[in-house]
Amino acid sequence: xxxxxxxxxxxxxxxxxxxxxxxxxxxxxxxxxxxxxxxxxxxxxxxxxxxxxxxxxxxxxxxxxxxxxxxxxxxxxxxxxxxxxxxxxxxxxxxxxxxxxxxxxxxxxxxxxxxxxxxxxxxxxxxxxxxxxxxxxxxxxxxxxxxxxxxxxxxxxxxxxxxxxxxxxxxxxxxxxxxxxxxxxxxxxxxxxxxxxxxxxxxxxxxxxxxxxxxxxxxxxxxxxxxxxxxxxxxxxxxxxxxxxxxxxxxxxxxxxxxxxxxxxxxxxxxxxxxxxxxxxxxxxxxxxxxxxxxxxxxxxxxxxxxxxxxxxxxxxxxxxxxxxxxxxxxxxxxxxxxxxxxxxxxxxxxxxxxxxxxxxxxxxxxxxxxxxxxxxxxxxxxxxxxxxxxxxxxxxxxxxxxxxxxxxxxxxxxxxxxxxxxxxxxxxxxxxxxxxxxxxxxxxxxxxxxxxxxxxxxxxxxxxxxxxxxxxxxxxxxxxxxxxxxxxxxxxxxxxxxxxxxxxxxxxxxxxxxxxxxxxxxxxxxxxxxxxxxxxxxxxxxxxxxxxxxxxxxxxxxxxxxxxxxxxxxxxxxxxxxxxxxxxxxxxxxxxxxxxxxxxxxxxxxxxxxxxxxxxxxxxxxxxxxxxxxxxxxxx
Length: 637
Fold this sequence. Notes:
This protein is an alpha/beta fold. The protein has two domains: 2-294, Nitrilase/N-carbamoyl-D-aminoacid amidohydrolase; 318-540, Rossmann fold. The chain has 19 helices and 20 strands. The radius of gyration is 31 Å and the shape is elongated.
């Protein structure tokens, strides 16, 4: 359970309708197996002790009696399991029959939750047998004990306090005012649903969307256990479609018509972090009589089954990735279009280096000018060769500008930079930070003054990853009048350029863009080695795919560095050794905190995703905050 992870399971047993002994043994066997695999919450389907499709047999005293006896057996035979178990059965309380879920732990029935919404439409006729439990609160007499009974029950774990479990049953999640809404507002971070949802064409897709979006709306975990083929009778067929979701993400899903268990690793730290971020997520105080507490015998590190994408900003599916790229390019271009329209400007200036960032900025600017109906010739793309410029990047910058239809201007800044070095007493043979930043600031000066001459604005090219690391020269490439790439991480920049290459419809432009994509990332501020780039950014600050992974999980999920290290080692296993991950994670944390002052005065630029560093929006961070406790958590790694 360390790092907030908890393994859970949803189980569809093979059952026989009205055979309580057979069904009970199936529940016990599968519960033991799930607990052995580390599941701490185990959920079975609706009415699984008797079967859901008993019909008028639910009115038979003997079936109800045997269901209660089997519940007692299940409780006794699972008392050695260190897990919270939910099973479904029909139960008579105060003279009325309810469709209920029983929560079991250590041989005891902790509480009974009745179904609130009883469907009587289509193939369903539950109201013939069951009363609605909506709003019910009290006790049920079971095995000589008074057991809490009601729809508002919350099962709170004493020694894993972030887990509070609420329960609803099948139809309860299909209605407008779900019980889970109230339960989540009262503190439930996990909802379990015992269901018997029959299968129809396309119903699985609807069910998947319903459950995943419910978990997103509630910012909660959601375990959905559905009845399987054993329930199939007369006119209905059941598929055992089980789901485990977390805040909109499907962590695990069973195949239709399979029996058995699926497992998921819910992250309760992430859920509570996401709720803290949303000040619109209201909370209500739970009544003390609705809280049922329990504890686990042992809390140990959960062996993770879930995986994390190496590139969290980049969809793995090609179709989804292309749609994302198109949307982001549109957001960037529309943002720039609005700025130009607002200030009455029909000219733009940007530096073009032959690298990825300036390439993307040029493509976005061209799209914005198309939207405005202004000629692309009004885009002044300036190449400014200096000490580190290679023929490859220079030629690509020139060719791309001409291919796009922008106006090219070359300003060789070597002489100006050397003159500046002479003025300040900088030895041009000393390749220090002054040597590098002097070039960056000269380029920005040229761009700003050319923009003034042409009554235009300077378009910033720096990306989100560079801003996170502070990999920008203050008042150099750090500054512009509108920064179109400010919300785009480096790993996504590459895919945006690739998408443009694939869809532009121009063979020459595609060829140029593909060569740019194949060029190492470099600021090109140091002299080339035998005509090749000598200064590679990722050799200096680390791989951008690692930094983007760190950035996403630190800002979006609020993960501690030690947790980021753990999941990064798993995600990049075989590509980066643990000590390499640790080295660059420490670099990331140090630079992220030390370089906030650069982000505190960023130019405007479009936010495109859930992670952003604008001081006016997403990151209200003091420029002089200490990184100590973040780094300290990595010392024992």
